[in-house]
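Note to self: the last two entries modelled the partners one at a time, which told us nothing about the interface. This time every component goes in together.
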Amino acid sequence: MGRRLGAGVLVLLGLMWLNVGAEAGEPIRIGAILSVTGPASFLGAPEARTLEMVVEAQNKKGGIAGRQIELIVKDSAASPEKAFSFAKQLIEENKVFAIIGPTTSGETMKIKGVAEEGKTILLSCAAAEVIVNPVAKYVFKTPQNDNHAILKIFEQMKKMKISKIGVLSSNTGFGNAGKEQIGKLAPENGLTILVNEVYDKDASDLTAEVTKVKAANVQAIVNWSIEPAQSIVIKNARQIGLKVPIFQSHGFGNIKYVETAGEAAEGVIFPAGRLLVADVLPKTHPQREVLVQYKKDYESRYKEEASTFGGHAYDAFIILLKAIEKAKSTDKEAVRAAIEQLKGVVGTGGVFNFSPGDHNGLDINAFEILTVKKGKFALLGK
Amino acid sequence: MSIDLFFQYVVAGITYGTIYAVVAIGFNIIYNTTGIINFAQGEFVMLGGMTAVTFHQFLPLPAAILVAVLITTVIGALVEILFIRWLYQPSVLRMIIITIGLSILIRETALHIWGESVRSLPYFTGSSVTSIRFGGVYLSPQVLWVVGLCTLVVALLSVFFNYTLLGRQMRACAANRDAARLCGISAKNMVTLSFMLSAAIGALGGSVVCPITYVKYDSGTPLAIKGFAVAILGGLGNSAAAAGAGMILGALESFSISILPAAYKDAIAITILLLVLFVKPSGLFGSAEAARLKEF
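The predicted structure of the combined assembly is written out below.
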C-alpha cells in the first residue's frame, strides 16, 4: 500500500514536472561563432557585445514566441578550424536553432557545408560575395557585398574624373577578395590600375609601398583592408607628400582607425553603411530610427562608439526575429523559407530584400559615401 | 630610378630598420648576461606603448612615457624573479619554451586589461602629416626621434658595459657564471638587472615607435620575430651590430619592394637572413671564435 502510494506520488510529480516544463517553454538556443579575440577582434568583439545587448533586451520583452532566448557565444579568434569545430558542436551537441556569425569570410566558407548538412540557419557577419554566391539554402549574410562597395567607389571616382588608380590591399581574405573584385570591375568602369600591391597586415611601416605607388603617378589610391595597418598606409602616404585622394574600403568604419591615422585621415573617402552618420540623416530616412536607437543603446551600455561591424550582428538578429514572426513558428524549415520572403527589413547595414536567389538582400544603395572631417565621420558634400 | 626615389626608399628602410634594431637590442642584453633568448621581448615593447597611452590620459607625454618605462621595468624584474630565478641550470630549450609561454601570458593579460582595440600616441613633434623635406625626399620627424633614441641607447649601453662596474659585472656573468660568483658578484641579481634593462629599453622603444605605427595587445609578436632575426643577423649579443643589421635588413626590405611585388618583402628578408647564416653562422658582425665558445 505504502509503496504503491509512493510510486503514485512519484508519477504524479513527474507528470507535473513535465507539464510545468512544457508551459515554461524550452529556451530557443541561438549559437554565435564570433572572433571576439585575435586578429579580427575589432570586428568580432562589437558583434558579440551587440548580440548580448539585443538578446537581453528581447528576453526582457518576453523572448521570442513566449520562449526565452539562450545565446551561446563561441570565440573562434578568426580561426577557420576553430569555427568548424564550434559549428559542429553547436549543431550536434547544443542543437541550436540558428547560428549567427562567423565574423570573417574565411571562417564562413569553412562552415558553409556544415550548416547545410546540419540544416541549420547560418547568418554570417562576413563580407565576401562567395558566401552567398552560389546560394546555399541555409546560408545568409548581413554585410553588404564588397563588389557593391567597389562600384560605389567607382561611381565617386567618375564624378571626380579619376581614371588612373593605384591599389593597395592587405594580405587577408578580405583584402584578396577586394583586390580581385577591383581588378575585375575596373576596366568596365573606365579605370586603369597602374600599380597593384599587397601589404602585410602586421607591418609597422609601409613607406616603401606607398613610395612605389607615388612613383607610378596615380590620380587616386584605393586602400582595401580591414586591419589597423590601413591607417599606417594613410599616414605614410601623406608623410611622403602624396596628396591624391585616398579611397578606403567599408572596413574603415571604426573611429579608432581615424584616431590612429590622426590628421592624415582628413579627407579620406570611403563607402559605408549609414550607422556612422545616423545623426545627420534626414528624419524621413527609413533607417534613421533603427540606427539612432542602436547607436544610443550600444554607446550608453559599452561606453565606446558604435561601429558598422557590430551592426551586422544586430541585423542578423532582427532578420531572425522578423522571420520567426512571419513564419509564425519556430520550425527551422519554416523560418528559413520565411527569411527568403522577407522584404523591406530595416537594418543598420541597409534595407534588406531577400529572395530565394539573393541571400544577402542588399545592393549598392546600402552604401553612402562618407569622408573624415575634423577627425569625425561625415557625409561627403556634393 | 631617380635619385629622389632612391633616397625615399632609403628613408623607408631606415624607418623599418631602427624599429627592428630597438627590439633586437633588448634581445641582446638578456642574451649577453644569461644566454637566454627572451621571446617575451616583443611584449615589453607592447607594454611600453600601451601603458604610455593609458597614462597619457592624465599626464603630459614625457611624464607618461617615463611612467610607462618604469612600470615595464618593474614587470621585467617581476617576470625574472617569479619565473626564471628559481630554475636550476635550465637548458636553452627549456628557457625558450618558458619565455614563449610568458609572452602568451602577458599578451592575454594585456587583452583583459586593455581590450582588443588599437591605440596610438600623438607624434612627439608635429602630427601624422608633418614631414621634413629634403629636396624630393620626405621624412617624418618621428623617424628622427626613433633613430636618435636608437643611437643614444647603443652609445649609453657601450659606455655602461665597458666602463661601469655594474656593466662589467654583467659581462662577467655572461663570460663565466661560476667564476663571477667566486669573485663576489651576485649572479642572480645580474640576471634580474638584465631583464629590467631589457624591459626598459623595449618600453622606451615601444613608446617612441607607437606614433608611427599603433599598439594593440598582440602587436608585440611580429616585432619580436623581426627583432630576433635582426639580432641573429648582426651576431647575437652585440648591440651596435644589431643596429647595423637592422639598417641593412630595413634597406633590403625597402629595396625589394621597389623591384618586386611588396607581398614578397618578408620572404626576401628571411631568405637573405638564411643565406647569411649559412655562410657566416655567427652573424654579419659576430666573431666566429667567440661564437664557438658560447653555448647557443
